[in-house]
Specification:
The chain is of the alpha/beta class and 171 residues long. It is built from four helices and seven strands.
């Protein structure tokens, strides 16, 4: 149980900044205000998202801050409060914000279009269009901070192709 708990904590910490802050690809502002831009273009740079309090998804309370999340190449490189996290990075002040792990949707049918009423109509949509729709639904989930989805299928297996494609790009 101790090893499993440590692994879960480690995985949660790696996903903490999935609720992306300004400057990360596909980002939406962590502490957005009405009318603010939902995304900001990214450059290949090292970021230090500082002033945050962090909830790791495992404990009942938000860790006291301020903490920093160091992001390199669009991925979390380190989390903590030491000065080394800021070194050589463009610092973004997120004081008052809380970073959380990505959310999980445990029951998803990415292949089924909620706009199409019957199963008979669902299977009439050509495979290329269904694949594009699955990808669009997955992107919409990411924009809603859902970073993990348990796809329960729709019959075609196209969700598995998307999953394999994502895994290949992350490896």
């Amino acid at each position: 149980l101790g090893e499993r708990r440590a692994r879960v904590a480690h995985d949660a910490k790696r996903r903490i900044a999935q609720r992306r802050a300004p400057g990360l690809p596909g980002a939406r502002e962590a502490c957005s205000t009405p009318g603010s831009s939902p995304s900001v273009p990214v450059m290949a740079e090292v970021l230090a998202l500082c002033g945050l309090r962090i909830w790791d998804g495992e404990t009942d309370a938000v860790a006291p801050g301020p903490n920093c999340i160091r992001v390199e190449d669009g991925r979390i490189a380190a989390i903590g409060s030491g000065p080394g996290l800021r070194r050589g990075a463009r610092e973004i002040d997120l004081a008052g914000c809380v970073a959380i792990p990505g959310l999980i949707d445990a029951h998803v049918h990415l292949d089924l279009d909620p706009e199409v009423a019957s199963l008979a109509e669902q299977v009439c949509v050509n495979e290329d269009e269904r694949a594009r729709n699955i990808e669009q639904r997955a992107i919409a989930m990411l924009r809603a901070d859902i970073t993990t989805a348990r796809a329960l299928g729709g019959g075609s297996g196209l969700e598995l192709e998307l999953s394999d494609s994502i895994a290949a790009r992350l490896a």
